[in-house]
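Predict structure. Chain length: 205.
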Amino acid sequence: YVFGSYEVFEDTNLASELPGLIADAKDRIESDAFAIGSGTAAPFGVVTSTTAITASRVSPTTGGTFTAASIADVYRTTAALDPRHRAKSTHVANYAVYNLIRQMSSGGAGSAFWANFGSNVPEQLLGRPLYESSTMASAMTTGSNILLTGNFENYVIFDRIGMTIEYIPNVVGANFRPTGQRGWFATWRVGADVTDANAFRVLKL
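Prediction complete.
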């Protein structure tokens, strides 16, 4: 819901910029929800659904710890995937986690571990694509879910119709009188969840 005074809409180009601003807000809200959404008034996030299953959690070699020396934990997370999903798997983590993993590669793991092809070709971790999620945990503390690996063909997102934006020509107050403001109300329906528990693994500290 976005609103502003008559003067704001008369003296600025806010009205023409609103569709882009609302679309950007929708993208950011969904990005968070698809990662860690609780399933209550929001989609089930892929991390949320995966960590709800004990067998889908991978514990680190040293509990509550993830450092530049934790290279074995990255291998173990990928190895824990069902073989039929491993070939189609993708890695997702916070940028802070990837920074640590890059240090593992420079420490002697070599290009087979973290492949940086250059020339705008996407980087790969253990031969599989990687993507950033700023919503996933960045703190290397006990209980943090820091690295997700899985086959996203088994994470289903369902959109109902799409976004609807309604224009409110006059906003009214508690006394039902116009407040001298206009507004826009944006709504949409979306749900998501993991469809195969064996398709994902999460490294949980």
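Summary: Strands lie at 2-5, 57-58, 90-93, 114-115, 124-125, 128-132, 145-150, 155-168, 181-194, 200-204.
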